[in-house]
Amino acid sequence: MGLADLVPGVSGGTIALISGIYEEFIESLNALHPRLLVVLKQEGVASFWKAANGAFLSSVFSGIITSILVFSSIIQYLLTNHQILLFSFFFGILLASIIVLRKRVSSWNRIHLGLLLLGALLSFLSTQMVPSVAAIEPSYLFFCGFVAISAMILPGLSGAYVLLVLGAYSRILSLVQEAKNIAFHWSQVNLAEATAVFGQLLLFVLGIIVGLLTFSRALRWFLKRFYSQTLALLIGLMLGAIHKIWPWQIQEELVFENKTRLIYTSVWPNDFEGASQWEGALLLFGLGIGVLLLLEQFKNRLNP
């Protein structure tokens, strides 16, 4: 999930949904409530940990955080130097996810198809928002965290792309990289710089926490009462966003009212300016499909 959330156009919610942990993830987030403090006080740490589903949440979030810390600089490098191959891999994962997940809807009737189309339309329109390039105030990072995490837990809506639209994607990756450098070279770090970096990351994380606790409650309500309809909508969200990670895209800058905007246009490999790398792209596309199918098979063995 952490690796997927680093790539604009890919959602960690997609990985959670296809791996079979999505519903438990939403339920566990919804269980995080101030009343747990009463459980802690009256029944002790063990009961508190069980009521909060601590083992599950700690495993998920430690995996996400570890992935972000380990792969953030690698993803940044791949996006800059090997975007075609990276997007080909995730394009394969996302396409295979849609094919596999459609089987989880018990029956496709007009309502389900309508919700699928609605989800695809909403997701497509969200990807048409134009990313901005602008200076960012530290307090703005809280808002970015709140909005991005809401998208991250929805399959098909990329939190990384939302950050790109909000103009904060590069800033967040840079802050994570700076935090890693500070942690590894603590004795050589200026205290004021370290405070500024970790302070900004803290604001972003607080936004994430508030967004998770707020949005998960609404999502749980829909999953409890309208499971197959909600799943159809989520699949539509994935379908509408798939074009955003098409491997061959041309980036252009548009200046409007003294603000710089980035425009991405998808093209066929033959029309791409530069090496299309279609052989490697095809290989990575197949690898992405294979990884997703293996993940689905592994999930089925754990949950027969």
Describe this structure in words.
This protein has 304 residues and is mainly alpha-helical. It has one domain (2-302). Helices cover 70% and strands 6% of the residues. It has helices at 2-5, 12-19, 22-31, 35-43, 45-51, 54-81, 83-101, 110-127, 140-152, 159-165, 169-184, 191-225, 227-241, 278-302; strands at 132-133, 249-256, 259-266. Helix 7 (83-101) packs antiparallel against helix 13. The longest helix is centred in the C-terminal third of the chain and has 35 residues, at 191-225. The protein is globular.
Query: How would you state the average pLDDT, rounded?
Result: 79
Give the C-alpha Rg: 20 Å
What is the number of helical segments per DSSP (H or I, 4+ residues)? Answer: 14
Overall shape: it is: globular
In terms of DSSP E residues, the strand content is 5-15%
Order of helices and strands: HHHHHHHHEHHHHHEEH
- Indicate the low-confidence ranges by residue numbers: none
Number of domains: 1
Largest sheet: 3 strands, antiparallel
* Structural category: mainly alpha
Strand ordering within the main sheet: 1-3-2
As a percent range, the share of helical residues equals over 70%
